[in-house]
Design a protein that fits this description.
It contains 23 helices and 26 strands. The chain is of the alpha+beta class and 1048 residues long. Among the domains are: 240 residues, Rossmann fold (3-Layer(aba) Sandwich), CATH 3.40.50.300; 153 residues, no CATH class. The strands form 7 sheets. The protein has a 7-stranded mixed β-sheet, with helices on both faces. The chain has a 6-stranded antiparallel β-sheet with strand order 4-3-6-7-8-9, with helices on one face. A 3-stranded mixed β-sheet has the order 11-13-14, sandwiched between helices. Helix 22 links the parallel strand 24 and strand 25. Helix 6 runs antiparallel to helix 17. It is flat and about 205 Å long. The N terminus is likely disordered. Belongs to the SMC family. SMC5 subfamily. It is found in: Chromosome, Telomere; Nucleus.
Amino acid sequence: MAEPSKKQRLSHHNNSSQTPSKAFYKTRDVDEAHPFVEGSILRITMKNFLTYDYSVVCPGPNLNMIVGANGTGKSSIVCAICLGLAGKTAVLGRGDKVGLYVKRGCHKGSIEIELYKTGGNIVINREIHVENNQSLWMLNGKHCNQKTVEEEVKALQIQVGNLCQFLPQEKVGEFAKMSKIELLEATEKSVGPPEMYEYHCELKNFRNKERELENVVKEKANFLEKAKQRNERYKHDVNRYYEKKRHLDVIELLEKKKPWVEYETTRKELEGVRREREETKRQLSALRQAQTPMLRKIQDIDDQLKPTEAQMKTKVDDIKQALRLKQMEEEDHQKRISNTRRAIDDLKAELAKVADQPDVAPQINAVNLELRQIQEEKAKIEGEKADLRREKDNLIAESRTLEKKLNDMNNMMNVKEEKLRGRHRDTYTALQWLRQNKSLFQGEVHEPIMLVINVKDNRFAKYVENHIAFQDLRAFVFQRKDDMEKFMTEVRDKMNLKVNSISAPEESCSKRPPSRNIESLRRFGFFSYLREMFDAPDDVMSYLCHQYKVHDVPVGNETTKAMIKTVIEEPYLKVLYTTEERYTVRRSIYSNKISTSNSAVHPSQYLSFTVDAEEKRMLEQNLKRCGVMLKETDDRLKALQKEAAMRDRRDNELLAEKKRLSELKGKKRQLEQKISTKQDSLKQMENSVIDLNKVEEETKKKIAAVNHQKVTIVSAFMAQMKLRAKLSMEKVHLAFETLGLMAEKSKLENDCRGSATELKAIDQKCSRLEQRKIQLTEQCKGMLKKAKAICKMQNDSSLPEDLRNAFSKLPNTLDEVDAMLNEERSRAECFTGLSENVVDEYNRRELEIKNLEKEFEEKTAALNAYKQNISEAKERWLNPLKNLVEQINNKFSEFFRSMQCAGEVDLHSENEEEYDKYGIRIRVKFHSSTQLHELTAHHQSGGERSVSTMLYLMALQELNRCPFRVVDEINQGMDPINERRVFDIVVRTACKETTSQYFFITPKLLQNLQYAEEMTVLCVHNGPEMLPPTEWNKNAFIRRRLQRKAQA
């Protein structure tokens, strides 16, 4: 410790919320021999900040060691440095709201920090308001915003967010967790030249752009090469295409000429057909004129003979047809009479049988009575069925409502399970396994606590969730320990899942009463204990009462927060909640004094989805009851339906019997009526019999009349014939004269017959020629139209001169044209897979290749320029960095050798060109039998990590670019030997004149440590017997201490 004779620079006093506390030290004045580094802290003033009412701390320029018991306020100074220099609350790892750092019971607090700067110190003041978590900033007495303060702090190389410069207590373990890349960046910012980190970022950006350019150049080169190769193949195809096109042009001309040749051939054929048709028509006309008189005379005679014969034949046929119809009608009439007589005989026989049977009226009356009774019973059954159906519909509606409510509750449980799966998949996997294998366990096994807990009001979920650790919220609860061991063997050892399990207390604690009745605490704003805010199975509740004392943790409101100073004085209260905060109360076993800590209550993430277990149980019971009632209703309906079916069957039987009896009763009367009707019908049919003899006589008379008429005609004809014979005798004399003419007539008739045959043949030929002419005419028109269409000519235009000249070089016959066309087509078909697109594609790719070559040259030039820039930037960054890492390694190795251990720091990179993969690797060895191992969060012990972290920070200390460093309680995990060695190194290194300011916070020190004159020791006290700052006398304290030591 500094000598008592040295000038006291500070009177540091502090009053906490319970007892006054004081921190004091003495150090050298700031003089030219021990100047402060630019940006060092000269003064820290705290007002209503955490444990301090008002306190001023004036650290020294070198090592400042802040010593004090836990809870006295050492870390409060670290918090003040961080928040006063515009640091984030996340850096401290404590409360996330700045208002939580104001002393309890105060509405606002302030921090003022004075920083050393040549030409005039900088004073930064931050006033924190609890109500809205806002801060007011002042810089050198003038109001400003936080951004201005951040820029001023940055200009002084102060980085409270850099673990290599500012390592608070809650972040000590995170240093070893930093990756090599993060450690390099933190080191560059902390001790490297200001431009080193900028060069590194610039290099990373250059490398990203270079990688992009390399990919682009590579892609361009590959694409260019492939394009050239493709175009070489296309070049051969283009030559083949042009050769094919020459053949296709000849084919096109041939195809254009072919229709013209076909047209000309068809036209010539048409002219020949026309001439032949005209000649045939002249012959046909001459023959027809010669035969016309004879044909007309023959036709006249036929016209006179045909009507008479036809008329006589028609009359005889009509008479015979009428006779046949009358005969058929009489046969049918006789059949109907016979059938009617047989039916009358059958009805009379049946009537004789019916007459012997008794009267059926009494039986019909009995059947009617039974039918009425059955109808009444059926009506009653239908009424009962309607009532049961209404009851069933009501039960179904109620069941659906209950199912919907249960589904809504189950959906809430599904949300909880999804959150569990998202946060801890191993626990979710184990949950699925448990649900499939519950039969393996003898006792009760409860799913993770977060799933079986049901908060009664989701407003209270945040208290339950903040009170129970997440590792327990995701834990399975077992009634029997052997079941828990079996479960862990399966899921942890065999399935390799990371899960938590809990065995419920053997003696249930779920009904354990609280220390005090809640009614006695209502005056402080407490309204419930934590246990009453949620439901859980008995085993789970028993564990929570045993482990977390949920039965003894009260929850209050804003009234509780306003009366918190009075509340914490109450006995038996160890943990309590206000609306937004949790308070933990500790009572000293020595002095019975109270110390408290508070933290913000975070919003609930898992338990806010509440399901009323009692309501769910009642819903399940009601749903089960509805199911039972539905089954009973269905059974009753089935019984009624069965009974109704029996009634229906009996009703049908009675109706059939009634029908039978009714038919039996009316059968006699019906038979008598039928017999009478049949007899009347028989009489009518017998009276209307047709007299065939008479009809035949009449027919014969009609035929005789016709024959008589015929005879008369024949007699007249015979008289005419006699007259004709007489006249013929007179003609005999003329017959001989006409013999010559008859011979000539016969000859003419023979000629006429021959000419008729010839006429028919000529007529047929003429028809054929006419059809052929029409056909050829249409063909000519079509061929001419087709030829003009192929040559793209108008209908009224003539063949163009160029086509006429081209056609003249081609064959003129159709066979020759077809032969040449087939030859050209065969040659053209040899060039397969070619089209005009080949040429277009070739030309397009030629242009594309030229553009690609130009782009490739531009990108290559840009890449070369980037490589040159990277090479220059790499030299600017890498060489100084290597020197910096070498200096750190020398100091780090030296520190480890002094502790009889080994340590090494090197610049690590798997690829020298990947600048974002560069990192600082720390390797340490604490035992001679082991090798150097990289410092990680898992390989070394907690003490070894603390030693390595401390020595690395000390290696950075002498490089001295940052104005100060802060390390809070890093020696807690060290063994005494390593702690002593590290302390010696810290003192030797931090007390050199070339180093910057250093804050070392520790709750305890070993005995007989070596101290330096340049050190400043601040002892923070806290207790009920503290003197006011104005009455404190350091010299008197030291004198009394020495006297007691001498007396001892």
